[in-house]
Design a protein that fits this description.
About 75% of the residues lie in helices and about 0% in strands. It has about 180 residues and is mainly alpha-helical. A hairpin with a 4-residue loop joins strand 1 and strand 2.
């Protein structure tokens, strides 16, 4: 985690937050019980450049801005907590670490289990007064996990390896 953050870092973080909002709210698919988007791609970059805390903060900012501008459902703070936790996970797996298949898969697995299969069903059960064992909650969630886990793992690896992260990190550190 970077202790001092400069203007260039704030600018890059802001652009990544905006990209997260666009990918999540404009190009994502969302129903009452399921949301599919590629908003995790900018979070990979945030995690690699800024570390767990700033990625979590950026994910919360993106969730809050997206909710204010493009609300599709009622606001629920549990989903904002999900955004923060997913940002922490991306930062943990990609900050100051080489992007490997192991990291990419473990990152996707952690997010799938912790956020998609543990926390989100709890929030949905609370929001819509459904039993936690309801097929309405678990059916779409399990299908999404089976479909998105390999896609997310592959994109974690490809994006992490394709970007010149070392050059970006050194640029952000040297610019004053």
């Amino acid at each position: 985690m970077t202790k001092k953050i400069n203007a260039h870092m704030i600018t890059v973080l802001g652009l990544l937050i905006a990209l997260t909002v666009v990918l999540s709210r404009m190009f994502g698919f969302e129903t009452q019980f399921i949301k599919i988007s590629f908003d995790f791609v900018p979070k990979i970059i945030m995690g690699a450049l800024f570390g767990p805390l700033w990625t979590g903060v950026g994910a919360v900012a993106a969730d809050t801005i997206g909710m204010m501008l493009f609300a599709r459902s009622p606001f629920f703070p549990g989903f904002t907590l999900n955004a923060f936790i997913s940002g922490l996970i991306y930062g943990y797996f990609f900050y100051r670490k080489e992007v490997t298949w192991k990291n990419a898969i473990l990152c996707s697995l952690s997010i799938t289990i912790i956020v998609s299969l543990i926390l989100t069903p709890i929030w949905l059960a609370i929001m819509y007064n459904q039993p936690l064992t309801s097929v309405v909650i678990w059916g779409p969630r399990l299908i999404k996990a089976l479909v998105m886990f390999p896609i997310q793992s592959i994109l974690n690896y490809v994006v992490g390896r394709a970007l010149p992260l070392k050059r970006l990190k050194s640029y952000l550190k040297t610019v004053r």
